Structures are given as C-alpha cells and as structure tokens.
Request: fold
Amino acid sequence: MDIKLVSRTVDPFRAPKRTLGDLDADAAARLVTAASDIALVIDSKGVVRDVAFGSEEFSKDGFGDWVGQRWIETVTIESRRKVEELIAEADANVMTRWRQINHPSLRGPDVPVRYAAVKVGSNGRVVVVGRDLRNIAVLQQRLVDAQQTTEREYARLRHAETRYRLLFQISSEAVLIIDAVTQKIIDANPAAGQLLVKGTKKLAGRAFTDLFDAAGQKKVNTYLTAVRTSGKTEEIRVRLGDPKLDVAVSATMFRQEQTSNLLVRLSPANQATSAWLRSQSRLFDVVEKLPDGFVVTDLDRRVLTANLVFVEMTQMGTSEQIQGEPIDRWLGRHSVDTDVLIKNLSERGEIRNFATVIRGEYGSTSDVEVSAVAVTGTEQPCYGLTIRSVGHRQDVTNIGQRTMPRSVEQLTELVGRVALKDLVRESTDLIERLCIEAALELTRDNRASAAEMLGLSRQGFYSKLRRHGLGDLDGNNTDVED
Reply:
C-alpha cells in the first residue's frame, strides 16, 4: 500500500561553507545516520557500497545484506521505476523528490520507506536517505478499518430506519410520537391523520392533549405522567375533541439521542371487534418483523401480500409493487424450481427446507431455503411461504463454483412422498436444462457449437430447446459461426 504524503522542496543552507565548516567523512556519516532511519551509498553503477541504520529493525528484515548488490534488486517490482528515477535525478544534480519504495522483508509484509537522494563528490556516488513508513502504514490501515466499520454501521442504521419508517407509514393503526417533556407531537403516521380528520403535517408541533375534550385532557395528562414514571401502563379510554369519537390510548416511553419520547397508539374503542383487531394487529406485527421473508400467493402463484424482509430480498421499494406479480419473477433459479416446489406443495400440503435462490430486481442472487404450506379449506385458497437466507452458511472455498440446486439429502427426503418416475423425470429435466444453459454460455449462444459440445444433432438440440423454452426459436434457427 502506497503511503500518500505531500512532497515539498527544502531550501538549502544559504552559507554551508561558513556555517558548517569542513566536515570530515566520519562527521558527515554520523550526521546522515542521525537524520534518517536508513542511509545508503550507491556507486555510479547503482551498487550499494555501504549502508547505515538508525534502528535495529532494518537488520532483522535482512537489509544489512545489501552491500555488494544493486539497489534496484532489493526492492519490489513496482518500485524499480522509482529507483531509476531517483538515481537519474541525483546524477543530474537536482533536488530529488521524496518517493515511497517498498522492500521485501524476511519477516513478512513489505517494508515501505520514503527515500530522497543526493549526488556527492565527483566519482558518481549517490547518498540515499530514507525514513521508515511502517508506523504511518499501520495508522493508515487502522483509519481505513475504522472508516469501513463506520460505513457498515451507517448502512445498517439506514436500512433499519428505512424498514421501520415504512412499517410506521403503512400501519393501519393510528400511531403518534410525542415529546415526553413538552407533550408535543413530533410525528404521526397517515392512519393517525385519517382518524383525527387532519393531515399529518397539521399534527406535528401540536400539543397532544389538545386532541381530546376537556375531561379527556385531564385524564390523558395524568396517564402520560404515569407512563413517564413507570415506562408503560394499561390503556385508557377517552373522547376525542374532533371528531367526537371514543378511543383507546396506549403509550410506551423510549429514549432516542438522550431525549425521552412516547410512542402513542390510538384505536377506536366503540367497535365490537376491537379485541379481535388488537390480537390480529399483534399477529401482523410479528409477521412483519420476522427476520425471514414471508409471502402469501394465490393458487396461480401471484403475490397477495408479503413482509418487508421479502420486499428487501427482491430489491423492490414497497410491498405494493410486488402484489399481483408472479412469485416466479424472483423465486427460483429457473421456472423448473418453482414448478417442483408448487407441485410438491399442492400434493403434500407442506414442504420444508426447499433449497433454491432469490433473484433481486437488480441482478443480485441469494441462496435461500423455503418452507411452505398450502391453505385450501378457505374461501380464498392460498400458499404461505417463509424464505430464509442461507448465504452465510456457504463455505468460502465454494465461492464462484456452480452448485446443483438440490443436494442428495433433499432428493432422498422426497422418496416415499413423490413417485419415483416423477422424481427421476424432474431431476433429469433440471440437469438437462442446466447442461444446455452451460453449453450455450460457454459457446456464447452458438447453438451449433453447443449441440456439438453436448453430443447432440442440431435437430435434437433444437427439440430440447423448445421443450425447455430456451432461446428464440421463431426465426430460421440459423447460427453465425465464430
């Protein structure tokens, strides 16, 4: 790793002969050694004639064996050009720029050194002085690691904020966030705006107690004081000022950025089904917050509803964008995968740990396991699928290798549940399709070459393409030979 340092010119002494006097060789050697971490004397052929260290660390790295070697042979390949430029500038009697040069070390990583050179005497010898950059490299690496950790943490927080903001917006229950001290409304979701017959923008900044009638204001004020003390209490029933509607109020206190806020939920209290609605709301909240993807489809495989994790897996923006779409659009390596899944699901009623992939809208793929159940005894039959990402289980040594969509264990689990001829046919079709796709990929979609690679006649190859629905066969079936 190159250490980025700002190069700057150094003004020479104005009167060196008068101020320094006549320095002998020993005094000059001590001066050069004291002013640098490493110093080299290079002859006109680029051979190291002498070397001095300001630290024993260089000796441990094998730098003491350089005497008699060409300096350019002691550096890494990418640094050789810099050595040639340093020596050329020194021979031209100009002030050389500082350059970072890396040396192989006997103890491990390359050693970065920042060098400058100056020509001395008339015999073509050059004195090269260097400064050890290892400490700076360590600090820079720590800075890079800290920056990457911070960026990952920011990304995680942004994703979490997006998920909870979306959940807050699409919730059918009226939810408000108020300041625990001033009792002013900070934020409200669209459901709250509809319940209170006001826009959410008009609610922000308004005192929460102003939403209720005179009796309700006193009761709510007492209730919020109790919540601030205990954190959470049982819900209360009060009447709104406008509209005249009895509501159940429940609040929970939480802290954010060293401030205390209250999460308040409002629900109509005069509905006979309020208890059932609350229980269903809890169930939906659990499903929405599951760490795995959850999706419900009709018998035609079209999405009816899905939680936010599945929306994130598909790289779509909202759940509304995927409703009505066929799940094959994202689930499965090919339609064969989904065909096998749905067929077994319809016959058995449930399926567990079906290995396949999720294809994101922008090209990403993730290995997943699908567990599903068929619900057929209702007015609207449907399939419910939970989708769990298993990408983190993959061995890093298998990255980049093409794996089969099913393991032997998963196939043997179907024995006794699926007829042998069906199991063999589906497995054969899947393997045949994968081989054809691999051949087309290797030959860059040259069908004549792909047929030859697979040992098939061209007519037989086209027959299999039609069978599996691969390629555009409406034309004349002509190929351009490479």
User: Anything to note?
Assistant: The chain has a mean pLDDT of 79. The radius of gyration is 37 Å. The longest helix spans residues 134-170.
